[in-house]
Design a protein that fits this description.
- The chain is of the alpha/beta class and 199 residues long.
- It has helices at 14-22, 32-38, 47-54, 67-76, 78-106, 138-149, 153-161, 166-172, 183-195; strands at 2-7, 27-31, 111-115, 130-135, 175-178.
- The protein is globular, with a radius of gyration of 18 Å.
């Protein structure tokens, strides 16, 4: 089973690529953000440690984490934000390693795809067989974010400044999929890359 990491800047169209990959029953496709969110659910492996960082004021009446309160605490307290990230990122990595082993044992999948915005920053290049970079021209990304999320240019600028520059993505990634144009072109490129694997 191949283990492939997918990354790229905001607005590059990673979600559409993932939707396409999920159509193949021989592909296991997961998103690091979704895995991270699962740890905020009561009873998760790190739930109690999250509460010890965030405080009981982050709890909803039913004992689960209140999303709005949690977001406010993290936004307003840099130390707590840092502590949460130091807890979440290793927990996601541990989950991914376990999931990879489990998937390999079942033999159900040819490829395990993991999408993460911080794929390179969190060192996934060390455990993935290779990384893919979903690229789109900055102008295209801006237009997408404005249309789909209503982001003004200032917000997009701020997000882009906090992400890796194009050159860093290209340095670490084995394949660059240009998603600036129509999705069909991107899908054909993905099919071409996958056809080269022995699976």
């Amino acid at each position: 089973m191949y283990f492939i990491g997918i990354t790229g800047g905001v607005g590059a169209g990673k979600s559409e690529i993932l939707r396409y990959l999920k159509q193949n029953p021989r592909f296991l496709v997961e998103e690091a953000d979704e895995i991270a969110r699962s740890f905020y659910i009561k009873g998760s492996r790190i739930f109690d440690r999250l509460i010890s960082i965030l405080g009981r004021e982050a709890l909803a009446p039913d004992g689960s984490l209140d999303k709005k309160k949690t977001a406010e605490i993290i936004f307003n307290d840099e130390a707590k934000k840092t502590a949460v990230n130091k807890l979440i990122h290793p927990a996601v990595l541990e989950y991914v390693k376990e999931k990879k082993e489990e998937a390999e044992l079942t033999g159900k999948y040819d490829i395990y795809f993991l999408e993460a915005a911080l794929l390179i920053e969190c060192g996934y290049d060390k455990i993935c067989d290779e990384l893919w970079y979903i690229y789109a021209e900055p102008k295209v990304r801006r237009e997408r974010l404005k249309k789909s999320r209503g982001y003004p240019d200032e917000k997009t600028d701020s997000i882009m400044r906090n992400q890796l520059p194009d050159g860093e993505y290209r340095k670490y990634c084995a394949h660059i999929i240009d998603n600036s144009g129509g999705l069909e072109d991107s899908f054909r490129e993905i099919d071409r890359i996958i056809s080269g694997y022995s699976c």
